């Protein structure tokens, strides 16, 4: 057997190479076969979802306004470099039903993929009363794969 043939290969009389060990396919620019298995995939990176971070920021800002640390929404907008309309959008997130807020704060982005967009939360806020907000939230949850505490929720 030559040095270029694998240890698990035998030369047949018909000039065919017979390989008796398992081979693993490696993807790169060219597909190659190797005798060693590929390394295990790393654990997915999990971070709080952006909507959860924005809800937490909204509560922080509202708390600062309530304690008179910051005078009003206009001052918040100036300090953060946002428009007053954007600050209002953020602070409106605090008007969502408490149980829905708890679910939002549990959301995770897995490998950078966000479970839902802020625009969908604005639809929950626009629903008005908490029972209607819960109904809108239930529809959002049913239509999205949402990761909560390391598990993906599937309807």
Overview of this protein structure:
- The chain is α+β, with helices and mostly antiparallel strands.
- It folds into two domains: 40 residues, no CATH class; 108 residues, Arc Repressor Mutant, subunit A.
- It is 42% helix and 16% strand.
- The protein has six helices and eight strands.
- The strands form three sheets. A four-stranded antiparallel beta sheet has the order 5-6-7-8. A two-stranded antiparallel sheet has the order 1-2. The chain has a two-stranded antiparallel sheet with strand order 3-4.
- A hairpin with a 5-residue loop joins strand 3 and strand 4.
- Helix 5 packs antiparallel against helix 6.
- The protein is elongated.
Structure at a glance:
This protein is of the alpha+beta class and 155 residues long. It has helices at 50-66, 73-80, 84-92, 98-105, 118-126, 130-143, and strands at 9-11, 17-19, 24-26, 32-34, 46-48, 107-110, 146-148, 151-153.
How many β strands by DSSP?
8
Domain tally: 2
SSE pattern:
EEEEEHHHHEHHEE
Count of helical segments? Answer: 6
Radius of gyration over all CA atoms, rounded: 27 Å
Strand order of the largest sheet: 5-6-7-8
Characterize the biggest β-sheet: 4 strands, antiparallel
What is the typical, i.e. mean, pLDDT? 84
CATH architecture of the largest domain: Orthogonal Bundle
Mass-distribution shape = elongated
Low-confidence stretches: none
What structural class should be given to the helix and strand makeup?
alpha+beta
CATH topology of the largest domain: Arc Repressor Mutant, subunit A
Q: Span from first to last CA? A: 57 Å
Regarding CATH, which class of the largest domain?
Mainly Alpha
Q: Roughly what percent helix?
A: 40-55%
Tell me what portion of residues adopts beta-strand conformation.
15-25%
């Amino acid at each position: 057997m030559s040095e270029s043939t694998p240890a698990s290969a035998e030369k047949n009389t018909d000039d065919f190479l017979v390989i008796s060990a398992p081979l693993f396919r490696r993807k790169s620019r060219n597909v190659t076969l190797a005798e060693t298995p590929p390394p295990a995939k790393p654990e997915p990176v999990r971070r709080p979802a952006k909507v959860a971070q924005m809800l937490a920021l909204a509560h922080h800002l509202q708390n600062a306004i309530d304690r008179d640390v910051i005078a009003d929404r206009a001052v918040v907008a100036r300090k953060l470099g946002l428009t007053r309309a954007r600050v209002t959008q953020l602070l409106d997130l605090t008007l969502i039903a408490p149980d829905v807020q708890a679910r939002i704060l549990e959301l995770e982005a897995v490998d950078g993929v966000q479970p839902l967009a802020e625009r969908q939360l604005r639809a929950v806020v626009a629903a008005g009363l908490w029972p209607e907000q819960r109904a809108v939230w239930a529809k959002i949850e049913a239509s999205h794969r949402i990761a909560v505490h390391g598990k993906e929720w599937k309807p």
